[in-house]
Amino acid sequence: MFGYRQSPRRKLAAFWFVAASWLVLLCPISTYAAAGPPTEVVRNFYNVLLDLMQHASALGSKGRYQKLEPVVLGTFDVPFMARLSIGPSWLRLTVEQKQRAVQAYSRYVAAVYASRFDSYAGEQFQVLGQQQIKHGTLIKTQIIKSNGEPVAINYVVHDNDSAWQIRDIYLSGAISELATHRSEFAATLRTSGIDGLIDSLNKKADDLQT
Q1: What Å distances lie between residue 138 and 26, 45, 69, 168, CA to CA?
Q2: pTM: predicted TM-score of the whole model, two decimal places
Q3: Tens of pLDDT along 99-139?
Q4: Domains in the chain and their CATH numbers?
Q5: CA-CA distance, 160 to 149, in Å (whole number)?
Q6: Alpha carbon 108 to chain centroid distance?
Q7: What is the pLDDT of residues 168-193, one digit of tens each?
């Protein structure tokens, strides 16, 4: 795995280092993800977004990001989403590169949401129902814009044995956010590799907070 032979003590230390690192990433699950019906994970997320929008001016871009970052880590299956967005090259990454990629991806997602939901003008969030699909449960929702126009947003959620978490989002009901990310990331991975992608995601996350 690491390219050289290790003593049992070194192997045990390496194991606990990796385990502890992933626990840090996953620990917010109990706070923000839903252990009840799958619709609750989306309802909880929408409640956070609504509060964020209503206090957007007071929080500012950085404050919105700081409020959302732990919510994203708990609500979204970030390691799964990062792996699918990066694609086949994920298998060739080292453990350290995977950890940095997951962290950069979560920062990017949190920053994007913080920038999208930056004001409130009477918008409504509605959870319409759920549908069992091959790879999880589809939660159908819509956001009612201030002019009354409904925008369909559907979420694929998965039971990871401790809570339901979001694994993909379909904008306008049909456009997969994971597929969009994978397409966007492909060019950077070809030209700059994983380190270039990680730097790019972190830079975008920083820029969105200014």
Answers
A1: 22, 15, 24, 9
A2: 0.82
A3: 999 999 999 999 999 999 999 999 999 999 999 998 899 99
A4: 8-208 (3.10.450.710)
A5: 34
A6: 8
A7: 999 987 899 999 999 999 999 999 99
DSSP per-residue letters across the chain: --SS---HHHHHHHHHHHHHHHHHHHTTHHHHSBSS-THHHHHHHHHHHHHHHHTHHHHHHHHHHHHHHHHHHHHB-HHHHHHHHHGGGGGGS-HHHHHHHHHHHHHHHHHHHHHHS---SS-EEEEEEEEEETTEEEEEEEEE-TTS-EEEEEEEEEE-SSSEEEEEEEETTTEEHHHHHHHHHHHHHHHHHHHHHHHHHHHHHHHHT-
Q: Percent of the chain at pLDDT above 70?
A: 83
Sheet containing 136-144: order of strands: 124-133, 136-144, 150-159, 164-171, 175-176
pLDDT at 5 over 60: no
